[in-house]
Amino acid sequence: MACALLAALPAVADEPYYRLIYDYEVASFCGLVRAPVHAAYSKKRERLESLSGLAADELTDIRVGAMADAEREYINRGLGGHKPWCRSDGRAGVERILEQPGNSR
Predict the structure, then answer these.
(1) Structure confidence by residue, pLDDT tens digits, 70-87
(2) DSSP codes joined into one string, 10-59
(3) Do the Cβ atoms of 82 and 26 come closer than 8 Å?
(4) CA angle 67, 96, 50 (to 5 degrees)
(5) What is the widest separation between alpha-carbon atoms in the chain?
(6) Do the Cβ atoms of 37 and 6 come closer than 8 Å?
(7) 105 CB neighbour count, 10 Å cutoff
(8) Is pLDDT at 48 greater than 70 in this prediction?
(9) DSSP 8-state code for residue 100
(10) How many CB atoms within 10 Å of residue 40?
């Protein structure tokens, strides 16, 4: 099952649930999570989970995959290389988390 999950992760990388988890993890690595970000994340996560139609174990697999991908990306940045990543991807992730549905930037 783990091999099937790993093979399936790239296909879900563009899904809103995966993206939300990934964005939150990146923001967390970058020290950008504050109360408003966490509150918006929690609300969106709950909404996406309820609308997904997926079983709890499927949601867990997606969540773990997104978290692992964010950690791998952080590690790949090397010593000090995470700073530009945080300024670009970290801030963009926070903006997406805080964005209200229907409000495109």
Answers:
(1) 999 988 887 777 889 999
(2) HHHTTSHHHHHHHHHHHHHHTT---HHHHHHHHHHHHHHHHHH---HHHH
(3) no
(4) 65
(5) 40
(6) no
(7) 6
(8) yes
(9) P
(10) 18
Per-residue pLDDT band at 4 (split at 50, 70, 90): very low
pLDDT score of 39: 98
The mean pLDDT value for 49-70 works out to: 95
pLDDT attached to residue 14: 76
pLDDT number for residue 1 = 41
Confidence (pLDDT) at 105 = 46
Judged on CB neighbours under 10 Å (0-12, 13-18, 19+), 53 is: exposed
Distance CA(76)–CA(99), nearest Å, equals: 28
Burial class (CB in 10 A: 0-12, 13-18, 19+), 49: middle
Find out whether 21 and 63 touch, Cβ atoms under 8 Å.
Answer: yes
